[in-house]
């Protein structure tokens, strides 16, 4: 029996329809939710991601104050741009597309975004609130994964969850999130220093792969019936494709389908949820500003 494939596109559309309805309600009160996405340089992958986010903004009926800056922009110029957007009351959310050019400190840029407008949830203030269980903006990918699990009917309460990857964007905040009482999972965070990784993944009810390396998690590493969430988006050479590459995740999807209970595809799994949760966070930022 093959695994249930969790349709991230369908779940994301459900979230986005809900957001659009609430945006319309805010507009009727004279509040126009607005997001500013800052793109530095012309990296093709970053341009593609920003294009997707701007399309989602338009579909949700939100205002778009996105900014494109040359790769040569200085760190001080970028920080000035963020300061201006922080001070602009018509802007509710600010997102700086990563990665940034090497001459700019990503952490300094993230720290510069007002916590009230940090819809990516990467500012240390929001991450600290996440750790203590206070209300905060949850990083979009971890938040989207939790929504996916619930919508798919995967049991989280009491589940043994193994996260492979300790990034500040996915692994660490997801560990904090799933450990909360509202999800109540027992979480193990594995990484490059973990010995005998399969000893952990084989005992997991839910395996979440977020390593950035193709096929890190394979069939022999997962117990029958487990849920496998694939966060990775990797470009691998493929001469059969017009682009010269194809997208693959951090797991071996084709091989795992026959052993897992639930699994997410790449593309069409976690990716659409990340953008949907960005829209949700921007909506919340506008709602928060309306009552401030």
How do the strands and helices of this protein lay out in sequence?
Layout: E1 4-5, H1 8-27, E2 34-40, H2 44-60, E3 63-64, E4 67-69, H3 75-87, E5 93-96, H4 106-112, H5 124-132, H6 140-152, E6 160-164, H7 171-179, E7 186-190, H8 197-201, E8 206-209, E9 227-230, E10 234-237, E11 245-248, H9 253-256, E12 262-263, H10 270-291
Helix pairs in contact: 1-10, 2-10, 6-7, 6-10
What does this structure look like?
- The protein has 292 residues and is α/β, with parallel strands linked by helices.
- The chain contains ten helices and twelve strands.
- Helix 1 (8-27) packs parallel to helix 10 (270-291), helix 6 crosses helix 7 and helix 6 packs across helix 10 (270-291).
- 42% of the residues are buried.
Give a summary of the structure in a few sentences.
By secondary structure, the protein is α/β, with parallel strands linked by helices. It has helices at residues 8-27, 44-60, 75-87, 106-112, 124-132, 140-152, 171-179, 197-201, 253-256, 270-291; strands spanning 4-5, 34-40, 63-64, 67-69, 93-96, 160-164, 186-190, 206-209, 227-230, 234-237, 245-248, 262-263. It has ten helices and twelve strands.
